[in-house]
Amino acid sequence: xxxxxxxxxxxxxxxxxxxxxxxxxxxxxxxxxxxxxxxxxxxxxxxxxxxxxxxxxxxxxxxxxxxxxxxxxxxxxxxxxxxxxxxxxxxxxxxxxxxxxxxxxxxxxxxxxxxxxxxxxxxxxxxxxxxxxxxxxxxxxxxxxxxxxxxxxxxxxxxxxxxxxxxxxxxxxxxxxxxxxxxxxxxxxxxxxxxxxxxxxxxxxxxxxxxxxxxxxxxxxxxxxxxxxxxxxxxxxxxxxxxxxxxxxxxxxxxxxxxxxxxxxxxxxxxxxxxxxxxxxxxxxxxxxxxxxxxxxxxxxxxxxxxxxxxxxxxxxxxxxxxxxxxxxxxxxxxxxxxxxxxxxxxxxxxx
Length: 352
Description:
By secondary structure, this protein is α/β, with parallel strands linked by helices. The chain folds into 2 domains: 12-136 and 224-265, Bacterial extracellular solute-binding protein, family 7 (D-Maltodextrin-Binding Protein, domain 2), CATH 3.40.190.170; 141-222 and 281-329, D-Maltodextrin-Binding Protein, domain 2, CATH 3.40.190.
């Protein structure tokens, strides 16, 4: 009697790198995505996620995935800004009043995905890109002294990335777009006067409260950003259709999971920063927010004249934002009214 034929599934292994330090919650998000894929794919597909710098520096992730040095990666589109300025529009700037989840809605249902694919093709990047994970509004940044007016930004040595560089340059700051892991050492050595990264959890773990005690909350410089998961297109195309479907649905599940985890962890770390680390939080004055919008209009006017892709993306965002924004603004109740009724006494951030 002959032995029965038993099909043994071969494991496809993908080596990913994030653009985040291993201790950052963002790297954890990358691992969360990989775990969802690995759990659903069984032993047929395994994604291993390495931290920033394990194979290439953070800002070289796109090229590494394109060349096949890495099979994929986890980062943000704004980090590719130097290759085409339009790429920064997936994150930088006020997005015509869209919150980060609305920006993802535009990307997935309003034409953004096709535009991103078009730009990657134009810059010869043979990758498959998934966007997910709406980031909460990022603070203006961490400062040695609180900022009460626009004039205090002039000459300030400041860290940001993407088109935010142009916004803060327009406001008079001297900008250095350092990767996340290099920000706090630069602040500590006086190479920076102030810096922004992203959120309470990342900022706490990266060590911001050790080198600065004032954080300005609310800003339009990166108010609608999201994460990007990249695949080398050749490796991705070689996958079976059901494994591609697993990746699709893992992205969607990770987007929801990330947004829930961010609320939980960011709120806990915000309380810890105020209590244990004695950080003073201030609301960014409206005059600075309006100045950001003025600077944004000047920056985008220049970029549209220089780059046809930039104009196409902006026009697409504007059309979607006008429709979806009106719906959201008309339909959504002001949740602050209810929160203030029960909790507001002494809880609001200070004025600078």
